[in-house]
Amino acid sequence: MITPLLPTYARIDLAFERGEGARVYTADGTEFLDFSAGIAVNSLGHAHPHLVAALTEQAGKIWHTSNAVRIPQQERLAARLAAATFADTMFITNSGTEAIECAIKMARRYHWAKGNPERYRLITFEGAFHGRTLAAIAAGGQEKYLEGFGPAVEGFDQVPFGDLDAVKAAITPETAGILIEPVQGEGGLRALPAKSLRALRELCDEKGILLILDEIQCGVGRTGYLFAHQASGITPDIMAIAKGIGGGFPIGACLATEEAASGMVAGTHGSTFGGNPLACAVGNAVLDVVLGEGFLQHVRDIALRLRQGLAGLQDAHPGSIEEIRGEGLMLGIKCKVPNKDVLAAMRERKMLAVAAGDNVVRLLPPLIIDEKDVADALERLDGAFSAVEAEAQGDAA
Fold this sequence. Notes:
alpha/beta; Aspartate Aminotransferase, domain 2; single chain; 38% helix; four-stranded mixed sheet; 397 residues
């Protein structure tokens, strides 16, 4: 018999009543160290006082108006993001997959408006994850997400991740642009080298096509930069963001240059809820903190400490850990043992993390973690790997 909630998740039998910083608590008071952050969403941890104050204040004023009228909170958020990035303009959404949909539409519309309607295809990459709508799963190209949903949305040409020669070979007169995550999350914490990102930018300029970045997971300070691509010194034409910009509240955005957005005139796109006053009040509060003096430096510093600790963990468990991957506080442990076993052992030690492709354990802690949290995490991870190894030895005996 089906449950009232559609059973599309294989949920863990855990529920949390409250959270504070990098800790969450069940109803009976059991504490967990949260290195999942709602899959990179709770960028400032749980119950951050500045976010709570902003949400509470706005909730007492006005929650929602339609986009038929001006929304000052939305205008302020857009202006601040534009000032801090390459973007001239943006569309505020409710989620990452909506931001990706807007990016895809924008790229196609750009070429249509330039008199080249045949240029509608996007080059995407193996291992990518861009969301769950029909266009997003087609862009991601993973069979497990496409199966059973009929013919895939047309217009996506997939190549191996980071293979510049394959990208060049895939460009045709129908190519509108290249869509890529600077750091793949679902795909196993694979980071695109800066030189490769610069090469893609040069290729797009040479061919007159658009560079579209998916920074839904790796953006908003996650890698130690406001956005991951900034470390490489390039700028995209279009960028999708979400997750961390709301700190736990549903909000996303599709950012663009004036040129890339030139085809998106009145009536070409819309959203009922997107960019409402409540969501944008929280988004602005997140920016208050992330753009504050020293915050991104803290992320880089604590990320280095965590990565050094993970390297030591790899040395201690060479039979279980193959590689440490990722950037900033978006790190992955490529396992030689089943990642699901490691995650289960972590939960037994009251620590949360996330699975990723290629047998990776994904670590996505809140950006506000400190040295104590890192030391605590490393101790629990050491215990988890030791337990998995002991169990494997017992089974072998």
